[in-house]
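DATA CLASS: polypeptide
GOAL: derive structure tokens

***
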Amino acid sequence: MKKLTALLIIMVLGLALLAVGCGGGDEEAVKLGIIQIVEHPALDASRQGFLEVLEENGYVDGDNLVVDYKNAQGDQSTLKTIAQKFATDQVDMVLAIATPSAQTMAGETQDIPILITAVTDPVAANLVESNEKPGTNVTGTTDMTPIKEQFEFLQKIAPDTKTVGIIYNSSEVNSEVQANIAKEVAPGLGLELVEATVTNSAEVMQVTQSLVGKVDAFYVPTDNTIASSIASVVTVAEENKIPLIVSEKGMVEGGAIGTIGIDYYKLGRQTGEMALRVIKGDDPASMPIESIKDIDIVINPAAAERMGVEIPQEIIDQAKEVIE
């Protein structure tokens, strides 16, 4: 009888240990939906940074993480279809890259946690109640750039500049916010701002050309439409020897002279750190929207030469990165 009892105890303990082991292996993977409005270097870099942070912390795609990445390629109806799919699939979390993506996704669910990145003004986009306390299922990072500092950067690059042509998509909330800030700060720096707006990427070349003879320099904010067509702006700038200053590194790599702005890869990583907190149970409603912790000077001397500009040595010495 004692042997039988001992045998039963051993069997029970063995089954218990087996159950514990199986429980750990059967843990459900985190289902992550990624919705992106368009493909261009800045937004791609933010996605890369986000995913790298998850992987570095043990969340590996195909193992305990299932990533469903969808790109709307600039089409609003496709963007809505993607958002509806993620809501229907009840993914565990969504990374919404850029303002249109975030707005569309937030319109489809108030329950699924949404991490945003590359969104300029979450409040103006009606994504959160305030940056300090979102109060919704949305949190993440803002890519608001230092517009005044960028104009001052332009004046150091091209000191004779009096008129600046700002090119942006008037239907993007993030771009309207930046344009309004630019209109506020430009007069204080002795600059006259000339606005040129588009509604889609097909208009970028023509609208940029319309500014030739009217402005001394071009400026592009963090606008998704213009960023995806930056080659068109660069072409006009080079052909007419008009300096082009932009708001982020990706467009400098695309042929602009330079920027003092944010690194979207770093911004994506910062958003990834926030995602880890959400996975562990933090409530997005009480997680403040975060800004990038530092800004960098990035220059492209070859682009400057093609536009007839010589970058001052002072700027070269201060540059975080020089695009070759």
Notes: The chain has two domains: 30-143+263-291, 147-261+296-322. The domain at 30-143+263-291 is CATH 3.40.50.2300 (Rossmann fold). The CA atoms of residues 221 and 247 lie 5 Å apart.
